[in-house]
Amino acid sequence: MIKINLLLGREERKKESIRKEVVVFMVVVVLVLAGIGFVQWMSSRQREDLVAQIRNSEAELKRLEIIKKEIKKAKANKKILEEKLSIIETLNKNRTRPVLIMSYLASEIPDKMWLKSLDKKDRSLTLEGVALDDETIANFMKRLQQSELFSTVQLVVTERVTIEKLNLKKFTMICTIGT
Predict the structure, then answer these.
(1) pLDDT tens digits, 27-70
(2) CATH class of this structure's domain 97-177
(3) What one-character-per-residue DSSP string does 81-98 give?
């Protein structure tokens, strides 16, 4: 009789399947390790790119801070220059004003009136003088008030004085110089 050992075939199939499983497992392990290596390589590359971007951003920030400081200096210089220009404009505007005031006063003083003193402080002009009568002083005040050079004219004091046997009116008035 012939005996056939069928168990050997099964055992060989089992060994074959175990070999296949080991090969598949090894292939899977190799693929997983390759995938992990690829992911690690990609992440380190991304990290290097991000570090380079951070360095570039920091360099750009330093450059912009320098520009910001320069702009701040330029604004400060501009403000100083604008103030200087304003002062120059004011000086140019006001340099002829005293001449205009003196010219106007010289042309408007009546024949019956004499000015003894002029005193200018800021926008205030104090006039002291002598006139023959109150009417002359009043007419002079009206002409000064009608002028564009003065915004207000106030009579401070009038008093009777005798100079060289003449009865005269001594006066003091304050005029506010207009803008």
Answers:
(1) 999 999 999 999 999 999 999 999 999 999 999 999 999 999 99
(2) alpha beta
(3) HHHHHHHHHHHHHHSSHH
